[in-house]
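In the present case, backbone shapes were mapped to integers, as reproduced here:
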Amino acid sequence: MSSRGTRYWNSGAIPLIAPDVLGNIISSASDLAVVITDEGQILSVLINPDHRSFGRLEHWEGGNVRDFLTIESVEKLDRRLEAFHASQPTGPSIELNHTDNSIEFPIRYTFHRIGPDGAVLMLGRDLRPIAEMQQQLVKAQAALERDYEMQREFDTRFRVLMETTSEPIIFVAMSSGRITDINKAAANLLGGTRGDLVGSAIAQEFDGRRRGEFMESLTNIAVSDTKIPLQLQARRSKRQLKVLPTAFRAAGERLLLCRLDLAEEGAVVADEMSMHLLGFYEHGADAIVFTNASGTILSANDSFLNMLDAANVASVKGKPLGDFLARGAVDSKVLIENASRTGQMRMYATKLIGTYDSQTSVEISATYLEDQAHPAFAFSIRDASRVEAVRVPGVGVSDDAVRSVMELVGSAALKDIVAETTDVVEKMCIETAVELTSNNRVAAAEMLGLSRQSLYVKLRKYGLLVKDPDA
């Protein structure tokens, strides 16, 4: 190779490289490059310009490399330098932990002789990214171990609970209809063992049941508001059993938790009564509505939906019953207050407002369902539009009032007769409102669309204040 650069390459030889260019090559080829003497004195430090996380290390130059290493790394460096100077320059790389201003960072070094004076070039790669990845892997492995131990703990709790509880329980997959798990109490009622029953179709454990029909019955009970157990006979034990399913989802799979119980004779009678009441509620001709204490609809049957022309129960559930009555909150308040006070209210006449503003004359009976925790009201609503003409009025016009009007004919002008008739009708309406509201003046005023002061004026005018117990 010529010093003038006439030949740059010959038989694999390396060309002459200018010192400043060589420094750039070394700093780019490694993350950290350190040149030391045989004794370990640092002659030069080069940092990769794209890797500035080390900070400034110029203060290393002139010092001993051992001053910037941890104790265990000093021993590793001494052994490697000893082997390096003993004609083993191509030994394996070593990992050294540097410490500088209480900050530690690991570097993997390879050693290279660069001159006759014994100078050694240490080319290093930063191991912090690898260390961080290793720490993340360790943390992930630890998290998996914790999850596994937690899963084992919950599985153990579940097994202990299933085997120690006296309540017979079966878990059924809704997609296949097969038993996924069953406890000993349930297996005894069915007349089998857990090993025989797990994995078998639950429908075949009961007499006269097909899989599709049976799973449909269980699903309908699980999603319905009224939980009525299914009466069945076990195929193996021949016992009469009740099955009450509950639907839930776990890990994306839909399951049924089925609780079993013996069907006692008294319970059968009670269940028959419940079934009859449920059938009357679902298929009865009269509309039936259940509300809470504030008049919000909790449930309603199909007859009520037909009267309103409502699409489904979701369109009325959660709304005030007064929204569907002609006088709105006034009707609802009269019904609820009277039913709360006396236990029930019968034959309250009003109109039902449909979805498309249609009006139907109805008679409503209200019953208070006393429950300290969850008081409720049951309303039976009957279509009275066909018999409205023959309904007996709550308050009739008195004979004296009619006679006084008739006596005016021929002796008074028509406008005077009409004025007298208006007073008679007005008195009749006020008496009816007072009677319907059980002498509740505030509710009567709302029903008539009057202010409370105007109602008292008219009551005084027609001599009706004597009905006030406080008057």
